[in-house]
Design a protein that fits this description.
The chain has helices spanning about 1-10, 20-40, 45-55, 65-80, 85-90, 95-100, 105-125, 130-140, 150-175, 180-200. It has about 200 residues and is an all-alpha fold. The protein folds into three domains: about 1-40; about 60-125; about 125-203, no CATH class. It is globular, with a radius of gyration of 18 Å.
């Protein structure tokens, strides 16, 4: 929550533009990463738990957490589908939004808040596996699915397939060892990303 408030405060003067949000997130991420590294360097039991969470794990989630995450996903996804008109217009730029009578700030703020909430819940449960969130939309776009409803649905399903595949690899391929889920998620995501880069000049 504090991270979200910080990023929104930095990006507020630009009307929550994508560039300011991205740069504020990168800067805050670097600061938090240095703090986490210092905590892990202490070697305390809490540091080991933190290291496991940073590596990604799906074994520490209670059934109630899964139900809460599922409920949040359904609510957030439904709201985003209802805002598909905003998602259609936002990429066209601020000039087009003004000409259509849309506010510049409200659509951006609402979508950022929903994305932040869903990201926070996912990160709390399995760790900061951001690479899956990066590559799933690119794969969806590579399949030619550009309308908001198809794009959101396909991105979610591709992310699910990647996470389930990573979990299967972590549990089965390395048996009897149970390596962190995040290692295999990054392996699958990185492989897909490199394949996309080799096939296209731009993403």
């Amino acid at each position: 929550m504090l991270a979200l408030i910080f990023v929104l405060a930095v990006a507020a003067r630009s009307g929550f533009g994508a560039e300011k949000l991205l740069l504020a997130g990168v800067g805050l991420g670097a600061m938090v990463s240095s703090i986490l590294t210092a905590i892990i360097a202490t070697g305390s039991p809490q540091a080991l738990v933190l290291l496991g969470w940073l590596s990604g794990t799906g074994t520490q989630s209670a059934p109630m957490q899964l139900w809460m995450a599922g409920f949040a996903l359904v609510v957030g996804f439904t709201i985003l589908l209802a805002l598909s008109r905003w998602l259609d217009i936002l990429p066209l730029g601020s000039v087009t939004m003004r000409s259509l009578g849309l506010s510049l700030i409200l659509p951006r703020l609402v979508i950022v808040l929903i994305a932040a909430l869903l990201t926070a819940i996912a990160s709390m449960m399995v760790g900061p596996l951001s690479f899956v969130g990066l590559i799933a939309p690119h794969l969806t776009r590579n399949f030619g699915l550009h309308t908001p409803k198809r794009f959101l649905t396909s991105s979610m399903l591709i992310g699910v397939v990647m996470m389930v595949s990573a979990d299967w690899l972590a549990r089965i391929v390395t048996f009897p060892y149970n390596l962190p889920l995040g290692l295999f998620a990054s392996l699958l995501g990185g492989t897909c990303f490199l394949v996309l880069l080799s096939r296209r000049t731009s993403l």
